[in-house]
Amino acid sequence: MNFSEEEISRQCEALLGNQMDPAKTSGFAAMLKTLDQANRRVVDALEDASEPMGHNALLKGIRHGG
Amino acid sequence: MGDDITRLGAAQIAEQIRSKKISATEAAQAFLARAEKIGPALNTWITLDREGALLGAGKIDEAIAAGDNLGPLGGVPVGLKDLIDVDGLKTTAGSLIYKDNVAVRDAPITRMIRDSGAVILGKLNLHEFAFGPSGHNPHYGDQKNPWDPERVTGGSSGGSGNAVLTAQAAITIGSDTGGSIRIPTSLCGAIGHKPTFGLVTKAACFPLSWSLDSFGPLATSAEDCALMMAAIAGPDPEDPSSLQVEAPDFMGALGTSLKGVRIGHARNYYVDQSEPETVAGVEAAARAFEEAGASVVEVEIPDLENAYPMATNFMMSEAAAIHEKNVRERAGDYDPKVLERLQIGFFIPATTYIQAQRYRSQWTARVLKEVFGKVDFVLAASTPMPAPLRSASTVTIGGKDYDARAHLISLTRHINFLGFPSTGFPTGFSQGGLPLGAQLIGPPLHDHKTIGAIHQLEKTGGTSFKYAPFEG
């Protein structure tokens, strides 16, 4: 998920029909890098038993008391 | 007389209408007059429905005259965030794209509110598509903070916040995907409740994130939040996320003492990035809980450094999916800042979205065990600072600069990712006269208990609501 500024500009143009403001591209790239780094850290720590629907099941399994 | 009615809480208004001290029509007229006087200066409303409100109030008065039983909110004037469908009214979502989108039926939550006897005054302004924590809106006007109109209300439910603080509606409904009820609750000084994910229907409400959106009340008291939650909580077959559990006893829980209740003060969640005044406000709330009989201990919420960006990966992906068609076809009609944030989601791979879902399961189980295995509730700030100026792009706290908008949401998004309930409440005022706020977070389906705990705190004077003096 590490995108160069050129790649971000190219993909934004494909999506919107015009290029992203070059002044904003570096901030955009930095944010994507932060999100990617978190993902990499988390993937290493995910347990095999963690499934995408696990949160849903967890909430639906809880009953309120009183 | 008009202003007197508007300074009553919802429970008092309903009681006075039931006992025929005032009529529902008088109540509606009083709040409509305030909304027409105050609303334009604060950009509170997108649609104010005078005709529909008076029609609804008239029906309540007819029911009283006929001796019919009213619902618990009988005759109470309320406002709904303009994401929620109301039959015959526009649902703009605060956007230009849906400026002429007229709903052809009530959303289920609207129906529940009507069934409880409430009178719907209209549709409240918001950050475009609820995708921003400040309440800026270039199409319908920035929602302005009633304590200082140069400052943000917080968002995205900014109209829902400033309406309550200026007595334009007795209760309002907001939505909370990353903090959009709790942020304006904190910055404006209301009491607001973000429900457990799935406890309140979101069918026929414009989504920001299917897996994070929650709809709930902003009000002048915890009791009024409980009244509204009693009306809107419970299963809805139209909402695939709806939890199949009956609503808890919200009104009964108001009477539960704080004696023996264990509250975890989560300093690691908020202290480092918060203004000293905000921290002092939460500490004062902690002492007030102790004086009311609760025990307060320190707790640590685990893995915060990963939880926030993973919640962001998750939310951005869903928001981009919801908006893909409009982004491709009508990009020029978006607020450029909202469009910028929406674009991020298009760069997040499907695998990252799935890992975020897996992480959500794992982290939630961990928080339940490591935190809520030890305490009943968690106490923390709702926002790290009081309302910033609407023109501010950065805020400086402890010598460190933060992006003003991003920082507003830094203490709330995690809780949406968990899906847990959280009740926001006032903790006093800054030296500059701006409201400060905290949140009491509970485990899933303990909504009635977080609201009940804040009610107990109100009774001891540990938190109190104050109307903003803004008169236009």
Give a short synopsis of this structure.
The complex is a heterodimer of chains A (66) and B (472). Chain A has 66 residues and is mainly α.
| Strand portion of chain A | under 5%
Principal-axes geometry of chain B comes out as globular
SS class of chain B: alpha/beta
User: Mean of the pLDDT scores of chain B?
Assistant: 97
CATH superfamily of chain B: Amidase signature (AS) domain
- Count interface residues per chain for the largest interface: A-B, 39 and 52 residues
What is the CATH fold-level name of chain B? Answer: Amidase signature (AS) enzymes
The radius of gyration computed from the alpha-carbon positions of chain B, rounded to a whole number of angstroms, is 20 Å
The percent of residues in helical segments of chain A reads 55-70%
Give a quick account of the main beta sheet of chain B: strands, pairing sense, barrel closure.
11 strands, mixed
Distance between the termini of chain B: 19 Å
Count the strands of chain A? 0
Rg of chain A, Å, rounded: 19 Å
Question: How many separate helices of chain A?
Answer: 3
What amount of the residues of chain B lies in strands?
15-25%
Average pLDDT of chain A = 85
Low-confidence stretches of chain B: none
Count of helical segments of chain B?
Answer: 17
User: What would you call the quaternary organization?
Assistant: heterodimer
CATH architecture of chain B: Alpha-Beta Complex
